[in-house]
Specification:
two-stranded antiparallel ribbon; 78 residues; 2 strands; mainly alpha
């Protein structure tokens, strides 16, 4: 069984999408995933692959770190 380190990936996909006045479906179509994928990603219930994370960052024309951030277990005080 894999060890659960308690770390996670947080994102600002929702913020970037809303600033562009896009629907989840429009963003999903632009980056080649389903609307459901965007939905769960925005809720921080899904960590995208590196390829998808770069696709999203490239779509919004920002550095990947402007949208996605790594949160260590010790920093994850939700």
């Amino acid at each position: 069984m894999k060890e659960d380190f308690g770390d996670s990936i947080k994102n600002k996909v929702y913020e970037h999408r809303v600033l562009r006045r896009m629907s989840q479906k429009e963003l999903a179509n632009a980056v080649g995933v389903s609307k459901q994928t965007i939905f769960v990603m925005e809720k921080n219930n899904y960590s995208p692959s590196l390829v998808l994370a770069f696709r999203i960052a490239n779509y919004f024309e920002v550095d990947i770190n402007a949208i996605f951030s790594y949160v260590r277990k010790d920093d994850n005080n939700d």
